[in-house]
Specification:
This protein is an alpha+beta fold. It has a single domain, classed as Aminopeptidase, CATH 3.40.630. Helices cover 34% and strands 29% of the residues. It is built from six helices and seven strands. A seven-stranded mixed β-sheet has the order 1-2-3-4-5-7-6, sandwiched between helices. Strand 4, helix 3 and strand 5 form a beta-alpha-beta unit.
């Protein structure tokens, strides 16, 4: 049985195992001065949770297959991490998690940031209705909603998903 669960700090090692396994794909596209191993440490995970990132996991028969996070921030929702075990990528796990996050996002816009050279990640988000914003808008959004170093801002992009307004709501 496949289940989506809100992930608590218990089981942190399984969560970090998925994140750090999947993040290996970024090693060749992240600037060398920004790459670290492990990609996310236990302390960083705790800081993300303290900052309000809610993590969800897709499990099958108790095994964690993928992890995704969402953070409500002012008038937008931020996708903050979406990682799938490398042996399960391209099997719909990320899509299921992303659709679940959409159900939790009350804001009219959902933003996601990723490395500009992570073309597979950009294609994934575009397939799900996200549109890449301009360089100027990327810089503005990253500075406003993310707490990342300037070097990461310079080498990242932002994609935006705008929820459509139902006509009967007008």
């Amino acid at each position: 049985m496949v289940t989506i669960l809100e992930l608590q700090s218990t089981g942190k090692s399984a969560i970090l195992s998925v994140i750090n396994d999947a993040a290996r794909a970024y090693k060749e596209v992240i600037p060398r001065d920004r790459w670290k191993d492990p990609y996310m440490s236990a302390d960083e995970f705790d800081k993300e949770r303290e900052a309000g990132v809610q993590f969800y996991g897709l499990t099958k028969e108790g095994a964690l297959m993928g992890v995704a996070g969402i953070q409500h921030h002012d008038n937008v929702d931020l996708i903050r991490h979406c990682y799938v075990r490398t042996d399960l990528q391209r099997h719909g796990v990320g899509s299921i998690l992303l659709r679940h996050l959409f159900t939790l996002a009350p804001a009219p816009e959902v933003l996601v940031g990723t490395w500009e050279d992570a073309t597979w990640a950009i294609r994934f988000y575009k397939r799900h209705g996200f549109e890449q914003v301009s360089r100027e808008e990327t810089d503005r959004l990253l500075e406003r909603y993310w707490d990342i170093p300037q070097r990461q801002i310079e080498t990242s992009i932002v994609l935006r998903y705008r929820k459509s307004v139902a006509l009967d709501a007008l």
